[in-house]
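sry for the spam today, last one i promise. struct tokens for design, 99 residues
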């Protein structure tokens, strides 16, 4: 359930970038359908699980773990971006781009 939540929230970030670029919004169903297929659940089963775990007061724990996983993924992504950008900065420039 936690990995599924993480994937759904990652796809939401991608979808928001599509919307910001005025791309079609229908991509959301394509992303969600593929994520549900990856975890062998339907949208209806996922919704039922959200309701069930909410009633059992367990959903907040799932979201805490999902947020933790997303934070780790974000940090790794940012580290990779820094590494890539450091390789692209010419040695003759300073941080503000002035030679």
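last one done:
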């Amino acid at each position: 359930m936690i990995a599924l939540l993480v994937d759904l929230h990652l796809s939401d970030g991608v979808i928001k970038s599509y919307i910001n670029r005025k791309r079609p919004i229908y991509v959301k169903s394509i992303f969600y359908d593929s994520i549900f297929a990856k975890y062998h659940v339907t949208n209806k089963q996922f919704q039922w699980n959200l309701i069930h775990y909410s009633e059992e007061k367990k959903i907040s724990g799932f979201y805490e773990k999902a947020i933790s996983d997303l934070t780790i993924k974000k940090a790794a992504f940012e580290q990779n971006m820094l590494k890539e950008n450091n390789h692209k900065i010419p040695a003759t420039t300073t941080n503000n781009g002035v030679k």
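The first helix runs from residue 2 to 20. ok im logging off now
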